[in-house]
């Protein structure tokens, strides 16, 4: 009896532990699911992007270089000192020394056993041909350029997140539609099995619907695999846990504005884009390099001063030894060496100007291409909407004909596949239209302000 009770107790505990484990796993699985809007994804991506952190590090480096350049205005100062122990040397003179009255006397050597000294010097540049000022200007331009580099990184990252988000949306829509179609195919197979057993349909027709079911299963495997890959890469992009299953928002069909005028977008790009603003700052920095190279021909004038103190016990003590003066330095070699430096700096400025012109052409091309792609995407979307209506009607008519033995099983299956394709194309078309529209904003440099990501 006790044995039976014990067995029942262990059975109950085992079942309880099993249910607890199942519930825990279910809760863990649910905790990894996340409904995520595009805005939330963009903000999260900006906060976690490694590229942005790299750009911030470059900004910090540029700020440090700028601060270092400003230090050139301050005087240079140094201090040194020393203490030495000196042994008493043995000196053996081979000739007599004479006193002032001509009489011979012994040599008296002080008992020196140590030496101490201290020295402070300072140098202040009064005039350096504008080198300090131009170094500060160049460093400031480069600091600004690094900040605009960060802005451009944000623009590109925002577009990457938008594209990744809606690519994931497309894959999830495909999985949903294929799964629904598979359920229909499975039901159809069950119906055909029963009809074939009753001799109503031929074995060949049953094989056709079974083949479609198998094809749907393969399509679902492909769609689910693509969804997993896109979901994983999207999590990496925005800094989510790798195992998080993201649920994307549905697409509002009313959020498809008309494309803006290309000229207006080009002007916006020249004003807003971080890469072109960074290039302009680097061009200004290169221009200051020309001034720096020319300043080598000018002399430098500096103020210098110092103080020294020394103590040699039993021998000598020096205090209040001050010095103050003005120094002039002129590099005569710069008269014939400087020309090449100036030419190098001028060539760099010219290169940057051509880079700017090439970038402006590239921006125009991007804007024009993205506008055309968006217009095409909107037109395709209209066609896809019509295609869904046509596919639904075609399936309805074909199904009615099939039920009245006026259409073959192949016709019915083809109509079913066409209906599935029309629905998938429509979901893809919506996502592609949004991606195309955001590419216009990215190429015009307005995507950051559109999603209020300036301070993210």
TrEMBL record:
Q: What is its subcellular localisation? A: Cell outer membrane
The UniProt entry, under InterPro entries, shows: OMP_efflux (IPR003423), TolC-like (IPR051906)
Chief location of this protein? membrane
State the similarity comment. Belongs to the outer membrane factor (OMF) (TC 1.B.17) family.
In this entry, which stretches build a coiled coil? 342-401
Q: What is this protein called?
A: TolC family protein
Q: Which domain of life is it from?
A: Bacteria
Which cellular component, as a GO term, is one annotated location? Answer: efflux pump complex
Which keywords label this protein?
Answer: Cell outer membrane, Coiled coil, Membrane, Transmembrane, Transmembrane beta strand, Transport
- Has the keyword Glycoprotein been applied to this entry? no
Q: Name one GO molecular function term.
A: porin activity
